[in-house]
Amino acid sequence: MFNIHKSIKAGMTLLLGTTLLLSACSGSNTEGKNGNDGSETTGDKEVTLRFSWWGGESRHQATLAAIQMYMDEHPSVTIEAEYGTFDGYYQKLQTQLSGGTAPDLIQLDYLWINDLVSQGDLFVDMNTLGDTIDLSEFDEQFLKDWAIINGKLQGLPTGINALTAITNKTFMEREGLPTDADWTWEQVLEEGEKLHQKNADYYLINSDLATLTEKIIPSYHSQLTGRYLVNSDYSLGFDQQSMTQTFAFLQSLFERGVLQPLGESALYNAKTEQNPKWINGQTAMTIANVTDIPKHRGTAVGFDIATTLFPIKDKAVSSGLNARPSQLIGINQGSKNIEEAAKFLDWFFTSEQATLTLGVERSIPVKPSAKKLLLDHNGLDQVVAEALDTALAHQDAAPSYINNNQELLKITNEVVEKVAFGKASPEAGAKEMVERYESKLKEIEAATKK
Amino acid sequence: MIRSASIFKRSEDRQWAGLLYVLPFIIGMLVFKLYPFMASFYYSFTDFSLLRKETFVGLSNYVYMFTKDPLFFPSLKATFLYVLLSVPGKLGFALIIAVILNMKLKFISLYRTIYYLPSILGGSVAIAVLWRSMFTVDGIVNQFLTSIGIPAVNWFGIPSLAIMSISLLTVWQFGSSMVLFLAGLKQIPKDLYEAGTIDGASKLRMFFSITFPLLTPILFFNLIMQTVNAFQEFTAAFLITNGGPLNSTYLFGLKLYQDAFQFSKMGYASALSWILFICIMLFTIIAFKSQKYWTHYEDGGKF
Predict the structure, then answer these.
(1) For residues A145 and A355, is the Cβ–Cβ distance under 8 A?
(2) Residue A94: which of B51, B273, B276 has the nearest Cβ?
(3) A47-103 confidence digits (pLDDT tens)
(4) A308: left (phi over 0), alpha (psi -120 to 50) or beta
(5) Cα–Cα distance between A41 and A442 in angstroms, integer?
């Protein structure tokens, strides 16, 4: 009697706490157990395949059209498309793989592959499907660098991607910036400082934190030393000295007004094409991937775009540039229709129809014959093709898979931010990088060897 | 004798019938609340990635967060700061608006509806995105400020300001607290104010001597609810700033999410969520203990 009030209150509290708290952590096992509902597989009749990808509207339309063509040709096969934007795709994919509800065909980012397959056998080794999928035209070294992990070909690259600098041609010509020669970082600093002094609203390079972390810092370090941040044996590719030099370069990019302060570009992080500096034509170039060109063209209203080689420092040991896959497509190890999925994938990569329909929606195809076909049919975007050719002409060794670890990237992000905001000197930043990378690499190595 | 026995039996039947009615709730509670709750407790003692089977590691997740994780304390600090900024702001704002909307004005129902709108929209992704574009360097807020002579502010670009800008979004969603305050205001007997008027008390005096004391139970309820929500805030930090700049808005909810779904460390994230749970629990206990010093129940707090 006397304590009813109290206990109701206590009960309420407990409930409130519990209810809302655990929603973030309950995703793993709540979904159904048996996905892949293409259960009527017996006797090669009526097969349902699920295919998931991310992309923009034009990629969706092209892929859907290609799928429709395949289904018209193969009436017994139904392909269910699961598509959306990049946001949240990886998180969803992980829960699907964990719950056994992942699609049969999965578009993957090469950045995730190592993190994923270090947790288990998730994708079918494409080399075992050699009878179904024609692998002859895929460049062996390219596959080895980006798609073969633990000796297994985890997925097939949909296109070739590389770093580039997308330029605002109109702006550069007006401001008298050189458009015909390749840029060096020294030149970038010099011209960038002049440009910003001339007009405080102008920045030579449109960049953001993600670009610095994933593109500029690793490439510059590679140009400086010939090594990326992590070697394939989990050892550090940098030391106190080389990282101090890299961060000193980073600091001068901001101090000399080459880059917009991070505080201002932060809201457009990973969306450089939406930065008003780019849209309003107050910047000369955006450091980006070749696959980002269509997006940046889309928001380039009232000016012409071109591309130029990603800047390389004077006396560089290496170019810091390499060809990488735009995405990979893998076959789910848990799929009940691996054979049918492989057949579709072969068609997807080989048939003339598919190649022409898909165009360069996933960048320029890896296979020389597919590229030639597009060229013959005027299906190659000139700007994209040129950007890629320029980058590939300077191609150097690829970084090891471990460089793509999400936790390491987060560390780089944080330290780069500190240096960029002036909260840490290049020396202090380098020290933090060395310490945190070393301890995280130990963790990663230990986890991988389990 | 027989008659009374049969009545007894029937009323017992009814008790079971009652249970049947609440069965959907009980099942939901067990499956969607209690099971995940217990599971996360278990996982917090394991090394569990999404795709690998868990292995029991004892307390090492908890040890790791206190000794090794460089982001644990900054994230906790950001979360407490966020709670301290957003909850009082929200409750204060809700109370002021509720008092205004309690006056006899024309179209008062319309105003009430309008002021409640942000709360309906508030948790949604679209509003967070809208908020972001409003507060950019050349966004509408800064355009307004410069037009009245105040220099533009980089709302999300300066670490100390970013957390305030995010809190502001929460403060703006004051609707649900406001409605509760409004209901509380309606229940205050008119004769108290009449007596106050006869005694010559000022409006302000009446607010602090009559309105506020009688509203304290509602205030208490709102405080608990809003604080529990604020501790778990995720959307704004995730969508607007993604934790930056310099981790100033790296709220605990966001950290949990990144560890779980980006870094595949489910076991560790479960352990983190229990720390959050303990924080919320501690706060709630303190709030309940302090209640007797500042809340006023007409019935003495008993049913």
Answers:
(1) no
(2) B51
(3) 999 999 998 888 999 999 999 999 999 999 999 999 998 888 999 999 999 889 999
(4) beta
(5) 45
Q: Is A261 on the interface with B (CB under 8 A)?
A: yes
Among B225, B228, B232, B281, residue whose Cα is nearest residue B255: B232
Q: Is the peptide bond before B245 cis (omega within 30 degrees of 0)?
A: yes
pLDDT computed for residue B12 by the predictor: 63
Tokens of A356: 């022409």
Do A406 and B263 count as a contact with CB atoms less than 8 A apart? yes
Kindly list the residues from chain A whose CB atom is less than 8 angstroms away from the CB atom of residue B277.
Answer: 17-18, 21
Angle at CA of residue B240, ends B235 and B243, nearest 5°: 80
HEC states along chain B?
A: CHHHHHHHHHHHHHHHHHHHHHHHHHHHHHHHHHHHHHHHHHHCCEECCCCCCCEECCCHHHHHHHHCCCCHHHHHHHHHHHHHHHHHHHHHHHHHHHHHHCCCCCCHHHHHHHHHHHHHHHCCHHHHHHHHHHCCCCCHHHHHHHHCCCCCCCCCCCHHHHHHHHHHHHHHCCHHHHHHHHHHHHHCCHHHHHHHHHCCCCHHHHHHHHHHHHHHHHHHHHHHHHHHHHHCCCHHHHHHHCCCCCCCCCCHHHHHHHHHHHCCCHHHHHHHHHHHHHHHHHHHHHHHHHHHHHCCCCCCCCC
Confirm if A25 and B40 have CB atoms less than 8 A apart: yes
Cβ contact (<8 Å) for B36 and A25? yes
Cross-chain Cβ contact B36/A30 below 8 Å:
yes
CB-nearest to B52 from A4, A16, A120 is A120
- ipTM metric: 0.82
| pTM listed for this prediction | 0.84
DSSP for residue A86: S
Per this entry, what is the length of chain B? Answer: 303
For the residues of A136-158, what is the DSSP string, one character each?
A: TTS-HHHHHHHTEETTEE--EE-
